[in-house]
Design a protein that fits this description.
The structure is a homodimer. Chain A is an alpha/beta fold and about 300 residues long. Chain A contains eleven helices and twelve strands. The longest helix of chain A has 27 residues. The two termini of chain A are about 50 Å apart. Chains A and B meet through helix 1, helix 3, helix 4 and helix 11 of A and helix 1, helix 3, helix 4 and helix 11 of B. The structure holds a DNA duplex (30 and 30 nucleotides).
Chain lengths: ~300, ~300
DNA sequence: CAACCTCATGAGATATTTTCATATCATACA
DNA sequence: TGTATGATATGAAAATATCTCATGAGGTTG
C-alpha cells in the first residue's frame, strides 16, 4: 500500500489551511476554488479522516487537520527554501531573444525596462527574427514571430501572444491637413502606405466595400517599422496591427480610422525550441510568463 | 512565475538521490526507470541546473543536487511522519466485506488470518454476497463477486481479481476406486456433479468432443460449496474454477482431470461503491491491495 | 429578504505522468 | 578490439490525475 498521499493534494491542503479558506488558497496556487475543494476531499478520502470542518459559511481545521497543517507547513517551507537556493546557483548565461522588428520597436523595447527592473541580473541578448528566415534555435531561447495561419513549427512550441488584426491608421497631423477620413471612399482618397506588398489594402477595400478595388498606388515599404515612421510623420494612411500600435494609439500619435480589420486570423506567436538547454530553461520560463502577462496589460 | 517545482519530480529526484540510482528509485516508487529519468530531467530543466552527473555507467549527484537532496530528504520524512500520524487517528469502524460463498469458503477465509496478522486493529465484518441479489453498498465497503461477462455495475467500480475458468476435478479416492479418468469418454462414465444447472458439463463436452452430449444426469447442487464437499468426499467429478480450488489442488485433496477449461471469459471481481464513506476508504484501499496481492501469490 | 459570501459536485477538457520500445553510452571481460 | 552488460535517455502513445466550468446549496450580512 502507498506510503505517502498524493503530494499535490497535500500542497493544496496546506495552502487552504494556511490561508484559512479554499478560495484564498486557490488564488495563491493560481487555480480555481473547485480544484482546491477536489484536492482537499481527495486527501480526506485518502486518510479516512475529516481535515476541515465545513459549514458555517467557512471551513475550519479539525484538530487532526491542524496538526497535519503545521507539519506540512514546515516541510513545504523547507522544500521551497531548498529549491530557491538551487535556483540561485543557476549561472548567468544570457537569455537569447529573437523578435521580429515590428514587435521589437513598437512593443518589446518600450516595455523592456519594466522587465529588467523586475528581474535584475538577468542578462539578455536581443536579436532580430527576420520573416521567412528560419530561426536558429541553437542561438535562440525564445522568439516572437508573426504568422497569418495557425503556427506549427517542427521542433518548436508556439504560443499565441496577441492577435494580428490590422486597421487603417494615420497621424493626427494628416487628419488636420486632409480633413476627416471616414469610410472607404475618403480613405481611398488619401495616400496609402503599404507594408511589403499591395495585398493589405486590397483586402481591406474588398472587405469594406464588398468589391475589388485597385490599390496599387502609394508607397510600399520594405518593413513595418519604415511604414510606421511614414504614418507617424503624416505621410499617409497605413494598415497596422492593432496590438502593436496600441502605444501609438494611446499616446495619440496615431488615430484609428475604421473598425474594420483585416488579417483577423493572423497572430503574433511566442516560439520556443521543443527542448531548451538546461541553463536557459528557467529564464525562458520567466520571460515567457512576463510576455504573456504584459500582453494582457 | 511559479514558486515551487513540480512536487512529484522532487519526490522522484529525492528517491533517486537516496537510492543512488534511477533504477533503484524506480523500484522504490513502483514505476519504471523511464519515469524517474523523465522526472529528474524535468526537474533539472525547471531549475536550469544539472542535479546529477551522468556518464561513467551511473549517475552521481552534483554538489547542488547533493544539497537539494539532503533538504528534500528531511522534508519528505517530515511529511511522511505527519501523514502516518493522521492515519493512525482514523477511527476503527469495521470494514464491511461481502463475498460470494465459494470464495469465502475456499479462498478468503483460509487467507484471512494472514491479513489480520499484518493488519492489527482492523475490525472486519464479513457477509455473504448472494449471486443475483444486488449488493447494498450502504452496508458494504468492498465485495467479491463472480461474473460470466465483463462486469459493469452502475455506481460501483469493478476490478478483476482472478479468472473464472473451470476444469473437471475429483478426489484422489474416486480415482482410486473408479480407475483413471482421462478424456471425455472416461469422464462421462463417472458420476457428474453439477453446480446450479446442467450447463457447465454440456459446455465442457461440447468443447472437448466438438459435439453436443446430454449431461442431464448426476447430482445438481444449489451452491458451489455443496458441490465441492461432494467432490472432496469422492462422490463424482465436478467442474470447478481453477482459481478458487488451488488450495485443494496443491494439498492433493482434488485432482484436475483435463486441461480443457470452460467459462474462460468469466472472472471474479472486486466491487467497490463509486464513492466510499470517508472513514472506510483507507481500509478499503488496504484490503483491496492485499486482495490483489494475495491473488497473485 | 436579497446580495454576496462560503464550499460542493459532476462532467468534460487539459495536463501531467507513466509506459513501451528502443537508443545510447561506458565499462568489463574475453 | 569486439561483445555483453548495466546503466540512463528518449519520443510517442497510453493512462491518470488535475483543473475548469457551470451550477447547487448553505450561511452571513446589510
Amino acid at each position: 500500500m502507498d506510503q505517502t498521499p498524493p503530494l499535490n493534494a497535500l500542497r493544496a491542503f496546506e495552502a487552504a489551511a494556511r490561508n484559512n479558506g479554499f478560495s484564498r488558497a486557490a488564488d495563491e496556487l493560481f487555480v480555481t476554488q473547485s480544484a482546491i475543494s477536489h484536492q482537499v476531499r481527495q486527501l480526506e478520502d485518502w486518510f479516512g479522516v475529516q481535515l476541515f470542518e465545513r459549514g458555517g459559511g467557512r471551513a475550519r481545521l479539525t484538530p487532526q487537520g491542524e496538526g497535519l497543517a503545521r507539519s506540512l507547513g514546515d516541510a513545504f517551507t523547507e522544500i521551497r527554501d531548498a529549491c530557491r537556493k538551487v535556483r540561485e546557483t543557476a549561472v548567468g548565461e544570457p537569455l537569447n531573444i529573437a523578435v521580429i522588428p515590428s514587435i521589437a520597436a513598437c512593443w518589446l523595447i518600450p516595455r523592456m525596462a519594466e522587465f529588467t527592473a523586475e528581474n535584475s541580473d538577468f542578462p539578455i541578448r536581443l536579436t532580430y527574427a527576420i520573416h521567412g528566415q528560419p530561426i536558429d534555435f541553437n542561438q535562440t531561447d525564445i522568439a516572437i514571430v508573426y504568422s497569418r495561419e495557425k503556427l506549427a513549427v517542427p521542433r518548436a512550441r508556439a504560443t499565441p501572444l496577441f492577435p494580428g488584426a490590422s486597421v487603417p491608421v494615420c497621424s493626427q497631423s494628416l487628419l488636420d491637413w486632409h480633413g476627416p477620413l471616414t469610410g472607404p471612399e475618403q480613405i481611398a482618397g488619401a495616400p496609402l502606405l503599404h507594408d511589403t506588398d499591395w495585398r493589405g489594402w486590397s483586402d481591406w477595400f474588398l472587405k469594406t466595400t464588398g468589391q475589388e478595388r485597385r490599390a496599387d498606388d502609394g508607397v510600399v515599404f520594405e518593413d513595418f517599422n519604415l511604414m510606421r515612421s511614414a504614418a507617424l510623420s503624416g505621410q499617409g494612411v497605413a494598415l497596422c496591427p492593432l496590438s502593436i500600435i496600441q502605444d501609438d494609439l494611446k499616446a495619440g500619435r496615431l488615430v484609428a480610422l475604421s473598425e474594420t480589420t483585416i488579417d483577423e486570423e493572423s497572430a503574433y506567436y511566442i516560439l520556443e525550441p521543443a527542448s531548451l538547454p538546461r541553463t536557459s530553461a528557467p529564464k525562458t520560463r520567466t520571460f515567457k510568463a512576463w510576455l504573456l502577462d504584459a500582453a494582457i496589460n
